[in-house]
Amino acid sequence: MTGESFYIDLDGETWQYMLVTDPPAALYWQPSSYKLKLSDIQIATQCSPAERKRLKHEILKDIQENDYE
Fold it and tell me: What DSSP string describes 12-50?
């Protein structure tokens, strides 16, 4: 799976997700070259729609906060 990663939320639960960008090469570009969107994040771990929405927002925020470190 391309861009497969894991995220640990505030409750300590581990969630598997994938970044699926269009074009696929955008995974390797600088953050200034491609703005990651919620639709680029796919949650692989089974969860409810409400959890999926929350996780996508948390993951996107985490990625954006850590892009320039």
Answer: S-EEEEEE--SSGGGGGS-TTT----GGGEEE-S---HH
Residue-number span of the structural domain to which 8 is assigned: 4-66
Given a contact cutoff of 8 angstroms between Cβ atoms, the answer to whether 46 and 63 are in contact is: no
Number of domains within the chain: 1
Q: Which residues pair with 58 in a beta bridge?
A: none
Q: Do 27 and 5 meet the contact criterion of CB atoms below 8 Å apart? A: no
DSSP 3-state of 43: strand
What confidence tens digit (pLDDT) does each residue in 26-62 have? 988 888 889 999 999 999 999 999 999 999 999 999 9
